[in-house]
Amino acid sequence: MLVTNENFEELLPQIENELKNCVFMAIDCEFSGLTAKNSLKNSLFDTNNERYNKLKENMQSFIPIQVGISIFTFINQQNTYQSKTYTFYLLPRPFGFGGNILSSTTTDGTMVSTPETYYLFQSTCIQFLCKYQFDFNKLFYKGINYMSIKQETEYKNQLNNCKHSIELIESIPFIQNIQESIPIEDETLLNTELKNILEWNQQQKKQSTINTNEKYVIQNQYIVNNVQLMYLLKKEIKRRYKSSLSFVHDHEGGFVYVKLTEEETETNNDKNIELELELINKSIGFTKLYKLLTKYNQLKKPLVGHNLYLDVLIMYEHFNGTLPRTYNEFKLKIHEQLPNIYDTKYLSYQLLKTNFIPKQLQWNSNALNVLYTFFKDGKGRHIVFNSPIIESIQENMENDYEQSLNDFHDAGFDAYCTGYCFIRLAHIFVGVHYETMSINKTITSIEHLSIINKYKNCLNLIRGNVSYIKLDGPDPTSDRPSWLYVKCKSNSNSLFINNPSVKQSNIKNITDTLGKYGSIDVQMLNKNEALVAVANQRCVNDILKQFKRQRESEYIITKYNPIRHSPIIKTYLWGSGCVITGGLIVWSLYRLVN
After folding, report:
1. Does residue 395 or residue 461 have the better pLDDT?
2. Would you kindly state where each structural domain of the chain is located, as residue ranges?
3. Where on the phi/psi map is residue 81: left (φ > 0), alpha (ψ -120 to 50), or beta?
4. What angle separates helix 149-162 from helix 287-298, to the nearest 10 degrees?
5. Phi-psi region for residue 12, left (φ > 0), alpha (ψ -120 to 50) or beta?
6. What is the pLDDT of residue 257?
7. pLDDT category, 39, cuts 50, 70, 90?
8. CATH superfamily assigned to domain 2-99+114-141+286-470
9. Topology (CATH) of 484-593
10. In 207-286, which residue ranges form alpha helices assigned H by DSSP?
């Protein structure tokens, strides 16, 4: 089901009920970009700390523009999983209508800029999404707003500290900006609406008795659908009529004429910030659903994704608050918030490592579209007998969304595919557990989750020093092969390391020469020496074997030895020209290498 700012609040209770009764939730995100600059690209040299810092900087530059959630339940008697899938278009909006940036100080002493929201769109990502018919009109016109939990807390704290004074409330920067930055054309619309309400109110007063069922309906849907314009309209009504008129915002934007007592008005300071709290609550937007996902995940309803690391990072950054400063702190925080998560890409790699599936039945890629096709239409449907039925239940789909539901890279469809693959992978792990492909009983969802529990909280890591990270424990040691050391034979071909363009040219030359053997990354040590990180041992063997034969090659290539090849160690030992005893050399090398 397609969800925008027009139906999000209406659907939220239904979604919460489905989350409450589900077995697990699958999620997928589409981003406005992936890499903010070249220095932040993934590298096989990256340690876990380095990779986290790169991804953190990237995710602070981009935003989630589409989130898909597929909610799966299990019917034991029918051996059937059923899913309800939702696609959400997201677009954060500032407090105010542009203009000057106003700042406020938070409780921890940092400054918060209120009105403007800045984010990047990466051109290659936009082209990619266009290829898959991403609807940018829905994004920009109907995207659901959101603010982080951190922002919500700070804004509410500011209001609570000022609620005893109307003047202090109106001096809060995010409130002040809304009131001062309204465009002239919007102000004209509001004044017209206020005039009509005034005339309606005068007619009501002429009646001998007040009819509380009588209401004034705002016809201008532009005002009704704009949270901040509605706030200004209600605030002005409250100022003019004080305690004599309150209002109920139904789906038509109606106001009900109601008389309040003086006692209510005088004794309740919370009434002073009633409209401001409503403004914040309506601006929270999609973060309300994020809170539900974390709530039910903490109640042991797993959250499942494919290559989930980036999704977790961008959700934490934009829906919770700023990502933690260090990698270890991030692991602690995200595990507190999402203690039960699975990554289907990681699961697919681990399943192949069991050697349970015959070679002729194995998938040839761990990409989501390949896995889904393999399990749905290919050889993977009945690798283990009695595999459950998986049904997708969709309601009230627009024609354009019904078409896109069968397209990969629609976040809703990708979330459904992820959940589908999760079930199929879990069922094969049942076969691994019982050491047979002939399962003659219905395997419940509880047993599926129990058998794969040891793979929980492990996130696949693309092109890194390790293949995955573990959120609830120590990370694995690197299973990548040792680096290669590359040296140019001729100084005439040497490249001067201080010249960035020449350095990049040299990296490209080495990459072009060695890249045909497999996935590699290159780091220059100096003007004619480089390190090469290689994805797997077969690639290393092929490169060493090939260049051992090619005596005419311009490169000398050997396995990297830190004692022989590291500039730091060589400088440490010989740079001062001092003579070091044999025992001191051994001790120094041991400390440096470790």
Report:
1. 461
2. 2-99+114-141+286-470, 182-268, 484-593
3. beta
4. 110
5. alpha
6. 41
7. confident
8. Ribonuclease H-like superfamily/Ribonuclease H (3.30.420.10)
9. Alpha-Beta Plaits (3.30.70)
10. 221-224, 227-241, 262-267, 274-284
